[in-house]
TrEMBL record, chain A:
It comes from the Bacteria. Pfam families: SoxD (PF04267). This is Sarcosine oxidase, delta subunit family. One of its GO terms (molecular function) is sarcosine oxidase activity. GO terms for biological process: tetrahydrofolate metabolic process.
TrEMBL record, chain B:
One of its GO terms (molecular function) is methyltransferase activity. Residues 516-599 form the SoxA A3 domain. The gene is gcvT_2. SUPFAM superfamilies: Aminomethyltransferase beta-barrel domain, FAD/NAD(P)-binding domain, Folate-binding domain. Its EC number is 2.1.2.10. Keywords: Methyltransferase, Oxidoreductase, Transferase. Residues 906-991 form the Aminomethyltransferase C-terminal domain. This is Aminomethyltransferase. InterPro entries: 2Fe-2S-bd_N, FAD/NAD-bd_sf, FAD/NAD-binding_dom, GcvT/YgfZ/DmdA, GcvT/YgfZ_C, GcvT_C, GCVT_N, Sarcosine_oxidase_asu. The keyword Methyltransferase applies. Residues 614-885 form the GCVT N-terminal domain.
């Protein structure tokens, strides 16, 4: 029963208000892509013991999709941010780096 | 015998007797008793039978950790099984029955299992019952079912009500012992919002029994003054009979409050489930005493030492006249002292330690109690009651030195902090060598959203067993949780205790004959020898051993057995205890009622039901409803005396011959609007929507990125940048969310808005050869002719007195107008149609008639022809997939090898050769058998009906190479052993040229 702050409406929302949407920052592969790329897009997901970027929708609130950076083991939330981005914003990466020395965004993807 | 003492008992009120019954026997207790203390006061030592061997079992503990005393409580609609006697408060008229025995508690046939015990070793389920396979059904399973099982399942509907509460606090303190009180006091003084909860009816925990001095006051006096202080703080709330059941992510805590269980059936909610969100959680949950493993430690009359003195001090109940105390620590001496002071006989304290010398030891000796050091119990004598104990050297193999007659044994193997709630959300433990116990590791707490620990264990639950240390720790925990600096808390004075000595088996070198009688898990009948056997058979993981032996898997979840069991395992493996580790602590701490979990969500409140504007009319006119999504749709409208089937067939025929009305309001209606709406819909639908002319309709398919068909419906182009997309009834919210997902997360720069207007319109399908006549009769001036409004077009206008949007679409194959009016006009419009249609023989029809008509016409239904593994190409819908588009959701997936496999089963019609109906879900068999000896298959039925129009069974199904095998016969076995043969035909059984719908 985690809590996340919706970056649109500012609500500190209980998990019951939210709908999960799986891993964030996936790149869509469509027609013309290789079988490998397409299968990775469809099926391969990071399952890290640690920092994870996730899609959430404030389903029973403002209805907006947003993204969250979170640790799957400590349950720490590094931050939430709007979904209209292909990679985590700088301030989120800085927050994670400060808490997790040695971690880097590239290394995890 | 066990009996009520002439004096004493902090909790009971001797002026208020309470009548109750146990196994039909009428007994008396007092207000303030638990069922356990009242039974013991009536010399009812035997309270149940064990799970596997049906051994006699007596009360062993005095609190939530009790494994044996489980009863069926109450009658009829208030019946509940597996209630612990030690936590059940006595009320007038309470009715309890013991469990797991047949025919009676005193004489139990299942006890024969005990004599078969050498055939029921660890893992007996796995070993005994594997071969031969055929024995399972008729021999093994009936045997297990007959002998297993504790309480009976309730047969009646639960008459009680339940509710859910939500609360947000800064600090939640779980446990109202002196540690919890101290922690709440510290946090309360700091000014933060505090909720303090206690699972029992009493504050102070066990402290008043042992009565340490706190801040110069007697324990009870300090507790009362602290409670008063807390009650005066506006920022502090306190509640009894409320248990912390589970700790979850980010400070979410589930609590379970029992409101009326202590007074019996009564109006108002019985239980309340609290969802508490706390910034910090303090677990002041105390500790649980451990049994000692000696032969016969399960004979009724053997009890935890502290429980025995709790019964004396709290309830004025003596468990026996002559009690032998056996221990490895100083604390159990308190029991001997309490008993002796109460005038009871303590023939001997058996101390496994070679030279006990503490203050309490001296006090016991001064009272004239004999202390046998370095000794253990070789075995307990007695069947349904202790009659004597045999003493031996703890260091030896069990040679009997002496026999001491007694009727009770008080045992203490030390204490285990209650770390459950600390552990639920990931708090780690550390092994405390001196106390031989696991305690919370303060450096590895459960962490919250901020990355900081959010649970603080406090007092005894944190491993501080001495009162003074516990209080200091708990007060500091309260301050830390409140975010203030640590200051000095209450101080306590209690006798100093010498170190305990770990004793995992008594005697240390016990022979197998003794180890087979040393119980670890009382409820599930797991013995020392079982765990040792598991280790010899190669079980190294404590989690595997647990499941193999069933250690700790009973309703008490191993509160008494886990540490002893894993100590035996670690000894057998020759590995230190911390490296073996514990099993996982899972919520809830003790079982909570199913009613509390459901709360108010039952009957009408179980799920909100969506109703169309015409729902009330349907109810009043014989509709049988079926759930579709969260809607209830009329399945059929039965007329006086008619069967459902007859009603459905009448509705089909009437619609085909005259005119029918369908309430289609539940159909999803999504407005997609914006400069990029066409481009967006081209991505969502497999076919081209951007080219749809204004005023026209087009049937469309939506696929997931996996390529599987997920929804279908008719799309209407409203104006240059507006489309209205119909979805299935169940798909409206899902498809709306799907659109939002793509618009917000992938194509966020596309200029498109989506609005779900499903409930803004009532929609009625007017269907049948007389549909046009009926609508024209209503007037309003709309030209509804074939020329003005041909099939697959729509128009806005007036029908009668109604603003209407009319779609010429058909899901039945008939001439059909789907008319949308503002929702508020829906009922009036429906009634106007019925009135005007009387002369044409209009009748409403339900979803079953709809289904039959669409199947006769060969139209697919999402959820029947599709199941999440079906692509449009399987269903002969390639015509609805645009070849011109570079991309649409699912296009890349449709190119994957498995999707283009020519051997995918494909949709055909099926016509039975004898006219009968193929059973739903039937498979078409082919030659030969598979590896499991089952017939190979070549297809399956997806929809099957008796067609009133054709007078025969028709079906749609997916068949291997089906479209290429027209006219071939396939065989569908039925579950009765016979089979039905069907001819492969076109799925369009009715009006293949479409003359009627186009008319
Ligand atoms: Zn929001």
């Amino acid at each position: 029963m985690l809590t996340l702050t919706c970056p649109y409406c500012g609500t500190h929302a209980d998990e019951t208000e939210l709908a999960p949407g799986g891993e964030a920052h996936l790149k869509r592969f469509g027609p013309g892509s290789s079988d490998e790329d397409f299968e990775d897009y469809l099926f391969r997901r990071a399952n890290p013991k640690g920092v994870h970027f996730e899609r959430w929708r404030h389903a029973y609130g403002c209805g907006k999709w947003f993204l969250a950076a979170r640790c799957t083991t400590t349950l720490e939330v590094y931050g939430t941010y709007p979904a209209q981005t292909t990679e985590p914003p700088e301030h989120i990466l800085e927050t994670i780096a400060a808490k997790r020395p040695g971690w880097s965004w590239e290394a995890d993807t | 015998m066990s009996t009520r003492l002439a004096t004493g008992g902090r909790f009971i009120d001797r002026s208020q007797p309470r009548a109750f019954s146990f196994n039909g026997k009428r007994l008396r207790g007092y207000a303030g008793d638990t069922l356990a203390s009242a039974l013991l006061a009536n010399d009812q030592m035997l309270v149940g039978r064990s799970f596997k061997y049906h051994r006699p079992r007596g009360v062993v503990a005095a609190g939530a950790e009790e494994p044996n005393g489980l009863v069926n409580l109450g009658k009829g609609q208030h019946f509940e099984p597996n209630q612990r006697v030690t936590t059940t408060e006595l009320f007038d008229g309470l009715e309890a029955e013991s469990q797991n025995h047949w025919p009676s508690l005193e004489f139990d046939v299942g006890a024969v299992n005990a004599r078969l015990s050498r055939f029921l070793p660890a893992g007996f389920y796995y070993k005994m019952f594997i071969h031969p396979r055929s024995f399972w059904k008729h021999i093994y399973e009936p045997f297990i079912r007959a002998s297993a099982g504790l309480g009976k399942a309730p047969k009646s509907r639960d008459a009680d009500t339940y509710e859910h509460f939500h609360a947000h606090v800064d600090v939640l303190v779980i446990g109202g012992g002196i540690s919890g009180l101290a922690a709440a006091l510290a946090a309360g003084r700091a000014g933060v919002r505090v909720l303090l909860i206690e699972q029992t009816a009493h504050w102070g925990g066990r402290a008043p029994v042992d009565d340490p001095q706190i801040n110069g006051l007697g324990a009870e006096e300090w507790i009362n003054s602290t409670l008063q202080a807390l009650e005066e703080m506006p920022n502090v709330q306190i509640r009894t009979r409320m248990m912390g059941a589970g700790v979850y992510d980010h400070g979410s805590v589930l609590c379970y409050e029992q409101l009326t269980d202590h007074i019996g059936p009564k109006d108002g909610p019985r239980h309340r489930l609290w969802q508490v969100r706390a910034d910090r959680v303090i677990t002041a949950t105390g500790a649980i005493e451990r049994p000692l493993s000696f032969a016969g430690n399960d004979v009724p009359g053997v009890m935890l030492a502290a429980a025995l003195r709790d019964f004396v001090v709290n309830f004025g109940v003596s468990v026996g006249d002559r009690t032998v105390v056996v221990t490895n620590n100083d604390d159990a001496y308190r029991t001997a002292i309490v008993l002796k002071t109460a005038g009871l006989d303590v023939p001997c304290i058996v101390d496994a330690r070679p030279a006990p010398t503490g203050e309490l030891v001296a006090e016991a000796r001064a009272l004239g109690i004999r202390v046998e050091a370095g000794k253990g119990i070789a075995k307990v004598k007695g069947g349904k009651r202790v009659t004597a104990v045999a003493l031996c050297a703890q260091a030896g193999e069990g040679a009997v030195l002496e026999e001491i007659p007694c009727d009770a044994v008080a045992m203490s193997g030390g204490w285990s902090p209650v770390v459950h709630l600390w552990s639920h959300c990931g708090g780690k433990l550390t092994w405390d060598e001196a106390g031989a116990m696991f305690r919370p590791d303060p450096d590895r707490p459960p962490t919250g959203a901020d990355g900081e620990g959010f649970v603080l264990a406090a007092g005894t639950a944190n491993g501080f067993l001495a009162t003074s240390e516990a209080l200091a720790d708990a007060y500091a925990a309260g301050q830390i949780a409140a975010g203030i600096k640590k200051g000095k808390g209450p101080s306590a004075l209690a006798p100093a205790e010498e170190p305990m000595a770990p004793v995992w088996m008594m005697p240390q070198g016990a022979a197998i004959s003794l180890r087979e009688k040393m119980w670890l898990d009382y409820q599930n009948d797991v013995k020392v020898s079982d765990v040792q056997l598991a280790a010899r058979e190669g079980y190294e993981s404590v989690e595997h051993t647990k499941r193999y032996t069933t250690l700790g898997m009973a309703t008490d979840q191993g509160k008494l057995s886990n540490i002893n069991g894993l100590a035996i395992l670690s000894d057998s493996l020759g590995r230190p205890i911390p490296s073996v580790g514990t099993t996982t602590f899972r919520p809830p701490y003790t079982p909570i009622s199913m009613g509390a979990i459901a709360g108010a969500a039952r009957d009408g409140l179980f799920q909100p039901i969506r109703k169309t504007p015409m729902h009330g009319w349907h109810e009043a006119n014989g509709a049988e409803f079926e759930p579709v999504g969260q809607w209830r749709r009329p399945y059929a409208f039965r007329r006086n005396g008619e069967s459902t089937e007859a009603a459905v067939h009448r509705e089909v025929k009437n619609t085909r011959d005259a005119v029918g009305l369908l309430d289609a309001s539940t159909l999803g209606k999504l407005i997609v609007k914006g400069p990029d709406a066409g481009k967006f819909l081209d991505m969502l639908y497999t076919n081209m929507m951007s080219t749809l002319p204004v005023g026209k309709c087009r049937y469309g398919l939506m696929c997931s990125e996996n390529g599987f068909l997920s929804d279908d419906g008719v799309v209407a182009r409203i104006d240059e940048d507006t489309w209205l997309c119909h979805t299935t009834t169940g798909g409206a919210d899902r498809i709306h969310a799907w659109m939002e997902d793509w618009l917000q997360c992938e194509w966020w720069n596309w200029k498109v808005y989506v609005a779900n207007v499903t409930e803004q319109y009532a929609q009625v399908a007017v269907v049948g050869p007389k549909a046009r006549m009926l609508l024209e009769k209503l007037g309003g001036g709309m030209d509804l002719s074939k020329e003005a409004l041909p099939f697959m077009q729509w128009a806005d206008g007036r029908i009668g007195d109604f603003d209407a949007r009319v779609y010429r679409i058909s899901f039945s194959g008939e001439l059909s107008y789907e008319v949308a009016v503002p929702a508020g006009q829906g009922l009036a419009f429906w009634e106007a149609l019925l009135a005007a249609g009387e002369e044409f023989g209009v009748m409403p029809y339900g979803t079953e008639a709809l289904h039959i008509m669409r199947a006769e016409k060969g139209f697919i239904m999402i959820g029947d022809e599709t199941d999440g593994t079906i692509i449009p190409q399987d269903l002969g819908l390639s015509w609805a997939i645009s070849k011109k588009k570079d991309d649409y959701l699912g296009k890349r997936a449709h190119q994957r090898p498995h999707m283009t496999d020519p051997n995918r089963w494909k949709l055909v019609g099926l016509e039975t050769t004898d006219g009968s109906v193929i059973p739903d879900g039937a498979y078409a068999v082919s030659e030969g058998v598979n590896d499991n000896g089952q017939r190979n298959t070549q297809g399956r039925v997806t929809s099957t009906y008796m067609s009133p129009t054709l007078g025969r069974g028709i079906a749609m199904g997916l068949i291997l190479n089906g479209p290429d095998r027209m006219g071939e016969l396939v065989e569908f076995p039925k579950i009765d052993g016979t089979s039905v043969t069907a001819k492969i035909v076109s799925p369009v059984f009715y009006d293949p040229e479409g003359e009627k719908q186009n008319g």
